[in-house]
Each structure stands twice: as structure tokens, then as C-alpha cells.
Request: fold
Amino acid sequence: MRALPDAVRAAVAGVGTTLDEDTTRAELTRAAALATGCAAALLRGTGGTGPRYEAVQGDAGLLPDPGRAEAVSAGGAGRRRGGTRAALCVPLVTGPDHYGVLVCGRPGTPFTRSEKELLALLAERAASHIRQAREHDRVSRIVGDLQRALLAEPGRPHPNLDVAIRYRPVGQRTLVGGDWCETVRLHFGRTLLVVGDVMGHGVEAAVDMTAYRQSLRYISSADLPPHRVLRQLDDIVSGEPDRRPATCLIARVDAVRGQITLASAGHLPPAVIDANGETSVLPVPVGPPLGTGLGGYEPATCRLGPGETLLLFTDGLVERRGEDIDLSLDRLARLRFTGAPGVEAVLETVLAELDAAHAEDDVAVLAARLRPRPGTAETAEGHGPEPAGP
Reply:
């Protein structure tokens, strides 16, 4: 008898080990069958199909007919003994919620008082965990809806620019985080390309990400150069103490001139894939992250020739734990492309070659390429940095 509390504790601990409702039902009937040497199942359903057994453990022939078991259990826990079989029905109830009936059956010996108490305890624990599982699913759906609302589509670039974007949040249940890409159409055929990374993960980072994007769109309407856009963003964010810091890289593409103006707030530099499929990283002056209030952002200008692809990305694409960031960028620079892949194909190749599916952080990546003008041929041009005025 002294061993009984330990046996009860072990049986109870085996029920509700996950937040999956079906798993909890199976754990309940398994624990009941092992603890009392019976066949066990969960009785559910009173709709068009009538009552039915689920998660059956042991010989289902030892269980009473589902309709009869439902009638017996209608008034609460019930037991039945007929011929050479004993049966016991224990409702899964917690508060006002009802999650089915645990039905146990075995030949011969009636269920003892201690067995009934144990089965009632198991049923109560299962009901509590099923309620938690359903509440978790409900909250997860709400979070999913919120994340989908936060995952706003970026703006449309000018028709003179081909743009493709990919976003890969870390975590199985996560739809959105702090990484983001944005495109803003400017005057005179120019487009602002932006990639940013808010500190942290999940919905909290996504909320700040959305605020950054809204501020960026507002500031960009004044058609300022990228470094001044960063300066104004930094002023806004540094005045909001609850806003998380963020890194950001802005590229203003002038498709008519074949020119890019870049500015960085603590962000990794962009890369360019030339018309021969060779990849190189562009040097860009790096200022402090947004939210520090320090300012000090500087522009850099480079060429983007026909057939060349500009690649903006967040650190999750290249960084690996314990690896120097220069080695991570070298891995990107070693990528080679054959043929003339479009921007969508470029992104798929980059994500596959850098194993973004197993990244340890959120990944956002944007590829952009000038669309050929009628009557022009695609030829590579140099893309080294050039001086840019303030």
C-alpha cells in the first residue's frame, strides 16, 4: 500500500505532457489501462454520427456499446456490471467544460474504490490539460491573425526596376518578426530600397518593425537622400524610449542614371551580382543603429549596370553562431550564378546555397535589377563606390 502514492504520481505525471489534445487523450487511456489492467477509451460525439470511441487502449470488445455507455454516463460517473464484464464511465469535466467520457472495461473483477479514485484523478487532469490545449490554440490563432496583419506588403517600385523579396522568420509558429524589407517609389523614376532588423524576435519586435516602416514611408515622401532619411528616423526613434533599436540599410536606385546611393545604420553591407554571375560585397560607411540618437550617417554612391543584381539582406542570411562576420560575408561573396537568372531565381539560389531554412535568426532579403530600356543591350558596368555629396 505504501507504493500506491508513487504509482498514482507516476500515472498522473504521464497525462498532459504536451499541448496537443489528441496526445492527451491517448495518454489518458494508456495510463488508465496500465493502472487498472482494463481496456480504456474516450467516448465522444453525440452529433449525426452518434457517440464513438477514440484513443482505444486494449481489447475494444471489453468496452460496453458506445450508446449504452453514453446513457450510463449522462448523470455523471457511472459503473455497470453485466455477465462477466465490469465497466466504469468517468466524465472529463473541469468547471463548466465537458471533454468526453473515459470508459473502462475488463472481465470479471469490479473496479475497486482506489481504482475509481485514480481514474477520476486521471480524467480530471486530462480535462484540465485539454482545456489548456484549446486555450493555447485559441491564443495562437489570435497571435497568427495579429502577425498576418503586421506582415504588410512592401510598396511597389518603379516599373524600371525588377524587385523580389523573401522573408523567413525563425521558429515554426512565427509568421513575422523584426526583419523587414520596403520599397518606396520616388520622383523621376527613382526607387528607395530598404532592409531593416529590429532587435529581438516575435510579435513585440514586429510591432516596432511596423512603426519603423510607417515612419520611413512618411519621411521618404520628402524625397531626402538616404543618409538624411536615416538621420530623421534616428531622431524620431531616440525620442521614444520604449522603441527597440534597429539596424537599417537604404539604397536609392536611380534607374535612368544607373546609380545607387547607399547609407547604413549599423547594418551589413549589400552585395552585387554582376552580369557574369560573380558576387561581391559593396563597402558602405556604417553609422550607429537607429535609436541611439548619435546620427553620423554618411552616403556612398556606386554604379549599377544592366544585368547586375543588387542584394540587400539581414544578418540572419549569412551569420552563423561562433563565426566571424567577415567569414560569413565571404561565404556570400563566393556564390556564383550561371546563365541569366531573374531576380526571383537569384533569391531562391541565395536562400538555398546559404541554407536559410536552418538559419538561427530571421531572414529578410531583397534583390533588385534594372529593367533593360528598349533598344539597349545588357552590358556590365563597374560598381565600385564613388564619392557622394551630402
